Amino acid sequence: MDKTAALASDILLGIGGENNIQRLENCMTRVRVEVHNDDKLDVMRLKQLPGVSGYVKQGQQHQLIVGPGKAAQVVDAMRALMTGGETVHAVDDVERTKAQAKARYKAPMSDALRQLANVFIPLIPAFIASGLITGIINILKRPDIVGDFATQYPNLLGILAIFGSAVFAIMNILVGVNTAKVFGGSLAMGGVMAGILSSPQLAQITLFGEALQPGRGGVIAVLLVVILMCWIEKKLRAVLPGSIELILNPLLTTLITGSVAIVALQPLGGWISEAIAHGASLAIDRGGLLVGAVLSGTFLPLVLTGLHQGMVPIHVELVQAHGYNALLPILSMAGVGQVGAAIAILMKTRNARLKKVIKGALPVGLLGIGEPLIFGVTLPLGKPFLAACLGGAVGGALISYWKVATVITFGISGLPLALTIVTGKVMLYLLGYLVAVIAGFLFTWLLGFNDPEE
Asked: Pick the catalytic residue: 7, 27, 31, 327?
């Protein structure tokens, strides 16, 4: 049995077997499980499994941090074992886990914001692909790097441009479908509502003396409309006779929701969307060093409380409004400070186990996956987490001052984000990255920490 299958088997045993699973899914780094009976979970066993670097409970969901790419493989292996009808018994736990941090710092709005973030999380692979392809195009267009490649192969660049922009062409539809899924509505109806808001035929209609604008409000309007649609659909399902519910429910839901959307929710979404895009851009443009330092320095504490998930629509709105995102490079510095702090700890600690954890977490930390470093290294030690936040604040201040922006919405950070930085700002991003690492290192070295015993 390979390591992935063994880990999948052990997780199944730790959560009480396949019959205890109510819902099983994954994100980029975590296996997410909802169970029928929490009492059947052996949390201590799950924390100590080789390959599990952290555990957290958010609402009804139990999350095991297993690393980028690994999460999908483990979930696939778990489903394969479950499909077979039986689980197979198989044979560096982190002293503090993400669960402890979430339980201590959880904010009141975190569950609602997590629902909001769940609308966009499935879109992360598409955003990553789009951003990286756009970055490749920017490189291929530079004569100082590839010569006259752009003039020799214009069709190739055109095809790549289609690949890179496709996600934005159907963004509202994808958000509509995912919103319906998260809030318990019909997926197709969610897509239909988004399609109504994006229809080019809206431009031919005048309402209250003004021509309607297709796509106005972007994803904010889609969220508002589809959430209303889900509520109306549920209410109608409860009152309509079963014999005609299948026919009348989608008809009435479309007519009612569509009318409210056109008259009220799309204009409201437009005002909110414009306020978000202009407000965020204005703060970054005029705030300079101070705004960058505050945003980056406080981002990881926001992660601990769950409030960071409210920023997801802001990232999307910035790209839809301007074609670039000036917020993501600033926030990415928060994780870079963790890298510098971890290097300082690695040089000072005498704890062999801690050294092993850091050596395993540093490579993915450089690539922008910071959870193993945060929840396995800096946060348990206390002072290094503060030092890392301060290091990230220094990097964020510089990134904001230099007005570095990326073409991607969200999904990647760290060194890979450099491939998506707008032309002319790549070296500034890398310089900010280096400064954040150095600052995180120095702050950690100066503040020190209590070296854990073996």
From this structure: 27
